Amino acid sequence: ICEQCCQAEGSIRCMSCTGVHAWCGPCAVKAHRNLPFHKVQRWNGTHYQATSLMDLGFLWHVGHGGGAMSPSPGESQSRGVWLCIWGRTSKLQVSSLRSSRSQMTIVHTEGIFTHEVSWCSCPGSDPIDLHLSLLRERLFPASISKPKTAFTFEVLNHFLIDALECKTSAMSFYQKLKRFTNNAFPDRVPVEYRELMRVSRLWRDLKHRKWFGFGHDTELDPGEGGLALFCPACPQPGINLPPDWKARYDRQYVIDGNFTAQHMKMNKPEMDVSLSDGKGYMVSEIPYQSHLQQSVDNKERSTCSNHRAINAANINKSNLRSTGIGATACARHGCFVPHSVVDFQKGERYMNTDYSICNALSYHSENITTALVIYDVGCQWSVNFRSRVKSSSSLFLPSGLEIIPAVGKFHLAAHKLSCFPRYSLNFVKGAGHLDGEILETLWAPFNKISPTARSMTQAHRQEVYDDHMRDSNWKKLVGIVPSLLKKYKTSNKCLEDMNQAYEQLNAVLDPNKVARWELDAVKAEADRGEALDIYLLRGDKAPTFHEAQLKLGKNPVSSSANLGSVAWLAEGISIEDSQ
Q1: Number of helices (H) and strands (E), helices first, in the chain?
Q2: How many other β-carbons are positioned within 10 Å of the β-carbon of residue 214?
Q3: What is the number of other CB atoms lying within 10 angstroms of the CB of residue 173?
């Protein structure tokens, strides 16, 4: 028996409601007046069979709070005074109300539903504004005119979070929704994948414009990097510095490339539509392409080791529009710098990285006088950097800015020995315990979305990368206080231990030598370059394998007929000590 009317057979149950319920068809519809996305089943005599609210007679009245038009407060239905959800009242006969109905496919987190929709036909309503009626119901239409498909705000938010946290592609997300709808026969579910791709892009862009204060002013342009977050701890004049900040702060950057983030050539690039070109972390496309056309690809000969980043500059794959991306981030906290991420065309060329670094150095850095730039091939890149900037019409540096090049600690081991003192972070004042490799950790989650983004359009790929970089910076922002506090406590403990070791070492050294070494260190810090060679490790070079083999072969034969076994062992120990 129906638990509500207590008259008809209670053959309907809801799988989404809490508890156990039994309704007749009309009572089930009434109970779900404002729950259109619940899944119901009907008893057929042997088992419960899946059905839908629409099959039970559910009608979604758009514009009337889920129900049909109702009499105005204080008025009776017989007098013909009706209240619309938009606040309009109208005195008219019931027979004069126009009813407009249509079927709509609505995508929700619980699956894909089909509902019969009754549109508001009150005086003053406009059939052209059906999309606005859906938006007021928290439904995002897939089209503006005559919408047949809509997505709930909730499912769009779920998709964005799934993409950011789980790196879920749109296809995988929609396949999940199809299985939620009909796990046995998902092919019978309406296919709205293309609509999800289009609507999710619009939803993402609208959310970001709203978050950054541009949601209600369509005339105000966010500008380059206007829809991006940056590091809250890095010094930014006019944002997070005291009035007397000058000469007290500098900036630290790290740049690196990711060759997994490739992009295929588009069949119809002229059909691509960008929603936020240059507003996030990737640079504006037209100025960047103009820079590449004006730049000369000088293949500078390396005076250091055979680095992959330099050799990769000659890589060219005909089916790829981009062979990877290059990004600049703050070296200490790992936040991507807005409007500084570039595409590679033939690998990691200086014309690409120069554009990224110059944009990063100019972002909120007025009157900053010193910048530490950490790059895997900083020893080669820094040689002619200023001359390349000077000869280019699209590269600019803040006036009076001193750039200190360095190499990350992991990559420095692959350089020549002479690079160690000149480009090691150990000899840069203020670098602290920087390793210069933080971008390598940031690339790890990006490598999970690169296969999906590889075949996207250029604009869509840019929006996806911007979104993930924005989310990465957001996580850094909300977690930076406990992170810095933990590092502060650790550094204090380390400083105490190092001071104790330093004092113990000084106590056994010649004071005159210590004073001379301190003067040399101050001079090397000021002059840098070759002056830092005082830290170059010097020692006798260990013999090669062939030299050691030749020497051992000349050992005299002992009286016991052994071929110099003692001499052989002694020589081995000597070689080990020399290494």
Answers
A1: 17, 18
A2: 19
A3: 19
By C-alpha distance, which of 55, 149, 68, 137 is closest to 103?
Answer: 149
pLDDT in tens, 436-477: 999 999 999 999 999 999 999 999 999 999 999 999 999 999
Pairing of strands 111-119, 139-141: unpaired
Phi first, then psi, for residue 544 (nearest 5°) are -75, 170
Q: How far is Cα 504 from Cα 168, in angstroms, rounded to an integer?
A: 56
Q: Are residues 393 and 294 in contact, defined by beta-carbon separation less than 8 angstroms? A: yes
Please give the structure tokens belonging to residue 25: 């068809």
Distance CA 338, CA 359 (A): 8
User: Position of tokens 């240059």?
Assistant: 278
Q: Which residues contact 2 (CB under 8 A, 6 or more apart)?
A: 8, 9, 10, 22, 23, 24, 27
pLDDT of 16-69, one tens digit each? 999 999 999 999 999 998 899 999 999 999 999 999 999 999 998 887 665 665
The DSSP code for 164 is I
| Token pair recorded at residue 198 | 């289009």
End-to-end CA distance of the chain: 90
